[in-house]
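pls ignore typos typing on phone
magnesium ion + seq
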Amino acid sequence: MSSTLNSTLFIHAVRLKRDAISDPGAYPFSVPAVQALSRMPMRAPVTILVGENGSGKSTLLEAIAAAYGFNPEGGTLNFRFATRESHSPLHEYLVIERGVRRPRNGFFLRAESFFNVATEIDRLGAVHAYGGVSLHEQSHGESFLTLVTERFGANGLYILDEPEAALSPSRQLALLVRMHDLVQAGSQFILATHSPLLMAFPGAAILSWEDGEIREAEYEDTEHYQVSRRFLMDHKGVLRKLLDAGSAEA
Ligand SMILES: Nc1ncnc2c1ncn2[C@@H]1O[C@H](COP(=O)(O)OP(=O)(O)OP(=O)(O)O)[C@@H](O)[C@H]1O
Ligand SMILES: [Mg+2]
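k done
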């Protein structure tokens, strides 16, 4: 990725104010992603956090979004609704290294609260900006793709937690294509994903944490790629091994 492109990023890096933490053994400081964090650079317009379930991707993503000024429950930079305090105080301990540009668009997709975002859009009477049909009247996948095609735009900052959750494989590829267009138009994405399709985004920086450190991984070295590949190359063989092992244990 060229350095010219990097100079257009809205977030260059995220730092943890470790000295300010009084109880490093408690949530959210205890989760592996936060334990490994000192400075996390964003080298490319697409940064992808990968890691095992429970490793702290959502915790970290929410804190980055809140520290940047997004509503921690999700939505655009202007959304201010709150249904309940469900986010951690981690954002108070983060320093966001900002680029010189300000985003013209932005969206934080929080894994659990897309429903609340849709409700807020209806309440604001803003349905026209989202394709003209209430997101509540579309399927989960349809409403998410409507959001991405109608509401995401050029020069935007998009922080997305498992955007693949509602999407079929071919729609995940449609999302990848849309992301690519938006990156060409000056946007930045930070996502957490388990999708080996989205992870293949050309030039994405894939970050994972191992042995207490944040590392950048090659796509083909990720467990997601390797497990998916092994399975799709020989799903019968893999299943036979797994199920035989299971019945031997029973
Ligand atoms: N409010 C909370 N209080 C205490 N612990 C929490 C809280 N929220 C999450 N955790 C714990 O923090 C850890 C990290 O959770 P988090 O949701 O950030 O993981 P994740 O990497 O996003 O996982 P997944 O891939 O399953 O989405 C988990 O072990 C979880 O149980
Ligand atoms: Mg998560």
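Residues 27, 31, 51, 53-59 surround adenosine-5'-triphosphate (ligand 1) (CB under 6 Å). Helices lie at 3-6, 32-35, 57-68, 114-124, 140-151, 169-184, 223-233, 235-249. more later
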